[in-house]
Amino acid sequence: MHVHILGICGTFMGSLAQLAKALGHQVSGCDANVYPPMSDQLAQAGIDLIQGFDPGQLSPAPDLVVVGNAMTRGNPVVEALLESTIPYTSGPQFLRDHLLDERWVLAVAGTHGKTSTSAMLAWVLEFAGMAPGFLIGGVPANFGQSARLGGSPFFVVEADEYDSAFFDKRSKFVHYRARTCILNNLEFDHADIFPDLAAIERQFHHLVRTLPGHGCVIYPAADANLGRVIAQGCWSEQRRLGAESTDADWHYELLDPAGSAFRVAYQGQWVGEVRWPHTGLHNVLNGLAAVAAAHHVGVTPEVSLAALCEFAGVKRRMELLGEVQGCRVYDDFAHHPTAIQTTLAGLRAKVGDAPIVAVIEPRSNTMRAGVHKAVLAEACADASRVVWFQPPGVDWALDALLEVSPVPAEVVSDHADLVQRLVALSESGSHIVIMSNGGFGGVHQQLMQALRARETG
After folding, report:
1. I need a labelling partner for 24 at 20 to 30 A (CA). Which of 175, 332, 378, 412 fits?
2. Banded model confidence at residue 457, pLDDT cuts 50, 70, 90
3. Pick the CATH number of 319-456 from 3.90.190.20, 1.10.10.2840, 3.40.630.30, 3.40.50.12160
């Protein structure tokens, strides 16, 4: 079957394309921005790429068109598709129909931590010899790829609450029919499609409604928003996560304040500990959720904890890009105040009084609209200094954050100026954390090059 994908270079759609190719289909696709690294991955997989949305790409007609959720009415190829008789579907529905029907699906949902938790869970199952398939919105270092078919019934999917397509406004995750489901957390986000928190809670409850009676939903006991979701009705087994002081089924106890060592208990019995290079309470909870989910499919806690000790992380999730003259530079995907706060808190607990420079581009639709601007400054309290980047298209002036910032802060609006400023701020022992859910104009690589040039000059 010839499958043509509209909007193929997004993380989800690009991974889906590679899975479709692995299933034996002829795969092609188009996008407005066909560039590395996704374009390289797709080309290596033998997938034909078309730059732009010319309707001519639908002739000769493919057997099926998969429409990405970034595609809108008025787009030339979308309008040509609707005028034709070519069958079309959404990405999540394609995944369900062509891959997940016969699988035991382990879905990871939540406002934060989906990618990291999915990667942890896939690695735990791999470590346990279960050869899972997966589709993850990032590249786990243990695998070096964002998607694979796997060699067993088990399939881990990062389950996004974003809508499926212009013709299907349901959240992606309702298509997957999971048996094991992690709900990491729930906060207001995606202001471009959800009017309020209640609307997101409704979608999460739709996900809970799809779980079978023998399924399992795993969530933190302290999350009041998820508590309201579960209170709307849950017909599956429940496993709650929390600190030792809670009545949760799975407990953690920190063995160091940074979160790089912790021990785990199940139903009141300590089962082992994790020592790893990762930091932050959010990662402890992510790991605990992965252990609980793996337990539901038969992996013992002892095996899961041993696997987490060898978890190598995910690209763009506090990824250390390099160290030059004692200055460490990190790339992080944080796109919400809570993610910013927990990431910086974890790093602060690890490095003590060392200087931390947070470099933040408010790029998500919600951040651009200024929905979280009242709490953004305080989210950076664990940094020593914040450099905000004012990108084009942001609906509010970031200068407003300077007046309420708990730490020294400034605003820069040019990429070259930003790199120069960061070079000036770098010193031996400092940590520069670049936070954006986009490419950030290549600032990461430019900064590393500038630091190396200073070192050799």
Report:
1. 175
2. low
3. 3.90.190.20
Distance CA 323, CA 320 (A): 8
How is the chain split into domains, by residue range?
Answer: 2-91, 102-308, 319-456
Instruction: Give the separation between CA 203 and CA 446, rounded to whole angstroms.
Output: 40
8 A C-beta contact, residue 331 and residue 454: no
As annotated, the binding site for ATP includes 110-116
Q: What is the pTM of this model?
A: 0.85
Report angle CA 435, 439, 445 to the nearest 5 degrees.
85
At residue 19, the 3 state secondary structure works out as helix
* Best CA proximity match to 343, nearest among 329, 353, 358: 358
- Binding residue numbers: 110-116
Q: What would the pLDDT profile of 405-444 be if each residue is shown by its tens digit?
A: 999 999 988 899 898 999 888 888 999 999 887 778 788 8
Class of CATH domain 102-308:
alpha beta
DSSP states of 262-279: EEEEETTEEEEEEE-S--
Is 2-91 a domain of CATH 3.40.50.720?
yes
Q: Do domains 2-91 and 319-456 have the same CATH topology?
A: no
SS3 378: helix
> Is residue 281 helix, strand or coil?
helix
The radius of gyration of the chain's CA atoms, rounded to the nearest angstrom, is 22
Maximum distance among all Cα pairs of the chain, rounded to whole angstroms: 65
Tokens at residue 173, please? 């995750």
Structure tokens that stand for 96 in this block: 């369900």
- H-helix or E-strand spanning residue 338: helix 337-351
- Nearest-angstrom CA–CA distance, 140 and 315: 6
Terminal C-alpha separation, the chain: 57
pLDDT digits (tens, 9 = 90+) for 88-98: 999 999 999 99
Contacts of 268 (CB under 8 A, 6+ apart): none
Contact at 8 Å (CB) between 119 and 314? yes
Q: Alpha-carbon distance 432 to 182, whole Å?
A: 32
